[in-house]
Sequence to fold (79 residues):
Amino acid sequence: MLNVMSTAGASILGVGYLIPFVYLLWSLRYGPVAGPNPWGAKGLEWTTPSPPPTDNFPVTPVVEEEAYEYAAEKEVRGV
Fold:
């Protein structure tokens, strides 16, 4: 009886791993290619190309706004 329960549990776990793996393969094959900054993020890590060069920035960048200013922009626009 315990062997049957263990086999059933392993089968359920196997299906649980198989479904995301199939989605992964499907998206790798048919999914759209993401651009360099698909979310419109403002952090410095999103301003460098991919893969990043040895020296990310020729000069030290000056940060003029917070990395997460999304809520403030929506309030200004009235959305």
Summary: The chain has a mean pLDDT of 82.
